[in-house]
Structure formats: structure tokens, C-alpha cells
Amino acid sequence: MLLEVDGLHAHYGKSHILHGVSFAVPRDGIVSLLGRNGSGRSTTLKAMMGIVPPTSGRVRLGNIELTGRRPYAIARHGLGYVPEERLVFANLTVRENLAMGVQRSQSGERAWTVEDMYTYFPRLRERRDVNAGSLSGGEQQMLTICRSLLGNPQVLLIDEPTEGLAPKIVEVVMDVILDIRRRGVAVVLVEQKLTIALRIAETVFVMGHGEIVFSGSPEELRSREDVRREWLQVA
Q1: Could you give the angle at which helices 137-149 and 167-182 cross, rounded to 10 degrees?
Q2: Residue 102, Cβ neighbours under 10 Å: how many?
Q3: In this predicted model, what pLDDT tens digit does every residue of 59-116 receive, in sequence order?
Q4: 177: nearest Cα among 165, 166, 192, 161
Q5: Under a CB-based contact definition with an 8 Å cutoff, are residues 7 and 198 in contact?
Q6: pTM of this prediction?
């Protein structure tokens, strides 16, 4: 396994949010964290990145212990993060936002380039001299994914990439995620739309009350109506 999360606990103040979350991500694989809002999925990604410091547990990437490191150090070691909030630098152009993300490849593999990003999302090439704050929500999502990829991560954590996007843009984003995997980058995907997660992930982990309550293949989850009803369906 390329990435291992073991017994992760995290708090917001006195609120205990994560209760011993454990899962693993294979090299070149896509896994998805599913669950209702408030189940702990986004907090899991933030704890892995050190944005929310874990109170106990471990996060290990290859032979590197990430637990306790600052977010910038975790990113340099090969963990990339695409936040749900699409945190672009609003007063910088698309071109300048992309330049902010460029890092050398640590693995010896060919580094991602700005030209790669324009190939994925031609709209960003057209808008490269426009301030990022003027972009649509879909364009900002494209930009955030690209800026994270330019850091040459080994694993990319993506939080709700299709939220609020038009169906045509959703398909483009899903195709890009699949191609990222083909290029050797593993993906941890938090996705509210069950059909999308089941379509592109090899393994799914369902979260409830801050812990993993189910793990298996998409086919296994499709066959478990009890799990979907209890932990995924909105009453």
C-alpha cells in the first residue's frame, strides 16, 4: 500500500470528530470516502494533511511518517489536497495561480507541467490572464485541481470535486481524475454523488459518526442495501 491511515483521531476543540479511522490506498488506485454530511469525511482529509492536527493515530506515505508534520511539509513529501472550498488566489491570474503550485518531481517521474493542465482544461488556457476571482465555480474547481497536480503529488486528496458543477463539467472532472490515476497518482475522493464514486473508485469506505462502518468494492456496496439505507440515504 502506498498510503496508510491507522487509528486516526481528531478533535475540533472539545468535540471528538474522528474515532480511530483506518484505511489504506494502493499505488495508482482510487478509493472513495462516502457518508452523509457530518460523518467525518472532510475532517479525515484535513487531518491527513495536518490542517486539523490529529490527536492520535498515524498517516504514512511509503516509508515516510507524515503525522505531526506541518501541511506544507506534508505536501512536499507527496500528499496533494484539493479542498471543497476551491481556495484560489482571487487577485492573481490563472497563469499566476498555476505558477504558485509548481514543484519539482520528488519521485523521478516526469513532472506535471502547466501545458498538461491546459490540455486537461482548455478553458483555463483561454482564461489564463483573467484573475481567478472572476472565474466561474467550475473554472475555479479546474484551477484548484491543476494547481495541486503541479505539486507532483504521489496521492491526491480531493474533497467534493463535483459539488455545484454542471453535468458536462462533472464528466470532464471525472475523466481527469481517471487519467490522473493512469499517470500513476493515487486518489482519495470524497464525493457526495454515490453514482460517481461507484463508477470510478476501486474501493469504497463508508463513514458514519467519525469512523469507517463499511469497506469493500463498489459491487459489494451495491449489494448492501442495509448499509446504503443506514449510512448513505437522506431521510
Answers
A1: 10
A2: 14
A3: 999 999 999 999 999 999 999 999 998 889 999 999 999 999 998 876 667 889 999 9
A4: 161
A5: no
A6: 0.94
